[in-house]
Write a structure and sequence with these properties.
Elements (H helix, E strand, L loop, with lengths): L3 H4 L3 E6 L1 H13 L4 E5 L19 E5 L2 H14 L4 E3 L11 H11 L4 E2 L6 E3 L4 E3 L12 E6 L2 H8 L7 E6 L8 H9 L4 E8 L5 H13 L4 E5 L4 H11 L6 H11 L2 E2 L3 H14 L7 E5 L2 H10 L12 H11 L9 E2 L1 H6 L1 H11 L6 E5 L11 H16 L5 E6 L7 H9 L3 E4 L1 H20 L15 E4 L1 H9 L8 E5 L3 H5 L6 E5 L13 E5 L2 H11 L5 E6 L6 E10 L3 E8 L10 E4 L5 H8 L5 H4 L10 H17 L4 E11 L7 E2 L2 E6 L2
Parallel strand pairs: 1-2, 1-3, 3-4, 4-5, 8-9, 8-10, 10-11, 11-12, 13-14, 13-15, 15-16, 16-17
Antiparallel strand pairs: 6-7, 6-9, 18-28, 19-22, 20-21, 20-22, 23-24, 23-26, 24-25, 26-27, 26-28
Helix pairs in contact: 3-4, 6-7, 10-17, 12-14, 14-15
Length: 677
């Protein structure tokens, strides 16, 4: 599908009344160099219909009701135009709109359109504004693309007072024909686009979305995103807004991380992250230096960074010595660095300090400053300090990138931001969002370098009957894929004592009944049985739950218990979850999710995020767990999933008992559900 005629037109047809007035005005305001043809049957200055146009338009803005939209789209298609903005609502997001959606799909043929229920787009590169509202912005040669499933949020981002250079602002509406994945691919291919921002309520086609993100990665275009739907209330709002059906947020988090997409919580963080990426692309590492003339500011930097993957390493020794000799004894050379007020007013020291620091191998050096309002007080000292930083950046071949950070967003005036832009220094506004932006910007490159694009194993033939394997069968199948299982026997009640003698005490005795998925909840498990008497007593207590019993070796040593689970989701396919196991799985929310394929490095990275990981590392003098055996178990499960991707419905290992270093991990309980062949 060719999108250039739609988004980079030379001729435009505008249909409708007051909404089309705005479109025409904004195109003229931007200085659109092509032809604009107004179409309205009752206005003297307009063409009466599409058939009266002097030539075939490249694209059209359809600011008309849904009935007329379908009629006019059909006429334009016959003429051979290139695509449309469908402004009208009342299609897929309304109960009575399904028929209109079907009719629109039919008349559109293979032509591209955005919407329906769509606010349009602005292309600042080519001075195009198919936008029924005021446009805030101007022509630029290079900038970010912002793609939104909300017209209001697109307006907000367009009007931001943070100096983010916008090249495209494109709204999606219902995503009936063109979805986010289509626009990502289109904007990523535009050499003028530096980075891509997204606001989404749904993803239509997950595989196409992943392919588009992979394409953007290949073009070096990082993506920053807000995905609505973290809460149930947000999901309900999204459904009524655009007919969106939002998926599981846990899966989305894992997917976005795997793809190297920076997921932000709010527009402030999204804009600041995009600013860094526009200026510098993904930062080469998470090693940053922040400095300022306030101990309080530096303390806030340290506190607010605690939840982010940011590293504030010591200043290298050579540069440390140079700073120490120039700044004096009163300044303690740390990172974050409080240069104190005396240095602020000593401009020679300040310049020398910047020259020294910009030689350090940090990914970014940020100077924290909050100038006063220049309309009410004298800001000379602030202006001078900022100018010294800009001079140092202009005159040196930088090793580190440079930024200006204000603790309050409003502290950096438009004049200051523009000076920073002109001199290659990124102006970051608001300390919390700036630190989050640094976190995201430094994480993208690592993921690009180390993590592959995931494969989605989607469910097939869901109507096929399913077979629940009992614990014995499940464990035997897992054993074929490298898992360690206890010595065990599946027998009737009359054989329990006989086989118990073949296993060294203590033993575990369990009811084998596929109808009981969680045996501990009904007390159908008896553990640590040490004598024949205890076995007989336990058997008498659980005989009523089934006819078959699992007698197995008791694994007595345990450093930590984990759950390893496989979930089959209609949108995300097969995924692996690792977290706290045993009876506390539902109580303690401590888990991570993997998409396949998964590497050893990815496993280590993710499981180290778990709280229970600290126990494996020897919490408060306890024995260390065998982390390698846990890693191997996750890899074994991943291989099992790929081998059974066409038939696997569910798999749960709970618990996987991880023992001390050098000892094997064991599957203590397992459940597998397969599609019957």
């Amino acid at each position: 599908m060719n999108l250039k005629r739609l988004f980079q037109p030379r001729t435009i047809a505008v249909f409708g009344g007051i909404w089309s007035d705005y479109v025409t005005e904004q195109c003229q305001k931007l200085g659109f160099p092509g032809k604009i043809w107004r179409v309205h049957p009752k206005r003297d200055e307009c063409f009466s219909s599409s058939n009266d146009l002097p030539d075939v338009p490249d694209c059209a803005f359809l600011g008309i009701n849904r009935n007329l939209t379908i009629q006019v789209f059909s006429e334009l298609r016959e003429l051979g135009f290139g695509g449309a903005v469908v402004f009208a609502s009342g299609f897929g997001e309304e109960k009575d709109g399904l028929d209109f959606s079907i009719r629109l799909e039919k008349v559109a043929g293979g032509l591209p359109f955005i919407g329906p229920n769509c606010y349009g787009f602005v292309n600042f590169f080519d001075r195009v504004a198919l936008w029924p509202d005021q446009v805030t912005g101007k022509f630029i040669n290079r900038g970010v693309a912002f793609i939104a499933q909300s017209g209001t949020i697109a307006i907000t981002v367009m009007g931001q007072r943070r100096s983010l250079p916008l090249g495209y602002v494109i709204t999606l509406g219902n995503q009936q024909r063109l979805a986010a994945e289509d626009i990502i691919r289109f904007t990523a291919a535009d050499e003028r686009v530096s980075a891509i921002g997204l606001y989404l309520e749904q993803i239509n086609d997950l595989s196409k979305f992943i392919d588009a993100v992979d394409f953007a990665r290949s073009k070096g275009k990082p993506i920053v995103l807000i995905k609505a739907g973290r809460t149930q209330k947000a999901r309900l709002v999204a459904q009524t807004h655009t007919g969106a059906m939002t998926g599981s947020d846990t899966f989305y988090d894992s997917l976005f991380e795997r793809l190297g997409i920076a997921r932000c919580e709010n527009l402030s963080s999204l804009v600041e992250t995009l600013k860094i990426l526009h200026f510098y692309g993904p930062l080469k590492s998470n090693k940053v230096l922040v400095l300022g003339a306030s101990g309080g500011d530096m303390a806030m930097v340290s506190d607010l960074s605690r939840d982010y993957d940011l590293d504030f390493p010591p200043i290298p020794q050579i540069e440390y010595n140079a700073l120490e000799s120039s700044l004096g004894d009163r300044v303690k050379i740390n990172n974050p660095l409080d240069i104190q007020v005396a240095t602020w007013f000593d401009y020679k020291k300040l310049r020398k300090m910047f020259d020294v620091l910009l030689r350090c191998k940090f990914s970014l050096i940020a100077f924290m400053v909050d100038p006063q309002d220049e309309t009410s007080v004298d800001t000379e000292s602030f202006d001078k300090a900022i100018e010294i930083l800009l001079e140092a950046v202009r005159e040196r071949n930088l090793v580190s990138k440079a930024a200006l950070i204000s603790s309050l967003p409003e502290s950096l005036s438009k004049l200051t931001r523009e000076k920073c832009f002109e001199n290659g220094v990124v102006p970051l506004q608001g300390l919390p969002e700036s630190l989050e932006a640094l976190h995201h910007s430094s994480k993208i490159k690592r993921i690009w370098d180390e993590w592959s694009i995931p494969k989605i194993f989607l469910p097939q033939n869901n109507e096929i009957p399913k077979k629940i394997l009992n614990e014995y069968e499940s464990k035997k199948l897992l054993a074929k894929h490298g898992f360690n299982i206890p010595k065990s026997y599946l027998v009737t009640s009359d054989k329990v004592l006989e086989v118990s003698k073949k296993i060294c005490y203590p033993i575990a005795l369990k009811v084998s009944n596929p109808g009981i998925l969680h045996k501990t909840e009904v007390d159908a498990v008896k553990l640590n049985l040490k004598t024949e008497y205890e076995v007989e007593k336990a058997l008498s207590e659980i005989e009523g739950y089934g006819d078959d019993f699992l007698v197995e070796e008791m694994i007595t040593e345990s450093v930590a218990e984990f759950i390893l689970g496989v979930t089959l989701d209609n949108q995300f396919g097969l995924t692996i979850t690792v977290g706290v196991g045993g009876v506390f799985t539902e109580l303690i929310e401590d888990k991570v999710t993997f998409f396949l394929p998964v590497s050893r490095e990815q496993i280590i990275c993710k499981i180290s995020e778990l709280k229970i990981y600290k126990i494996l590392k020897g919490w408060r003098g306890r024995s260390m767990g065998d982390i390698e055996s846990l890693i191997e178990s996750v890899r074994n499960l991943a291989n099992f999933v790929e081998n059974y991707s066409d038939s696997l419905v569910d798999c749960e290992i709970n618990p996987l008992i991880v023992r001390s270093v050098g000892k094997k991990s064991f599957v203590a309980d397992a459940l597998i559900i397969l599609k019957e062949k």
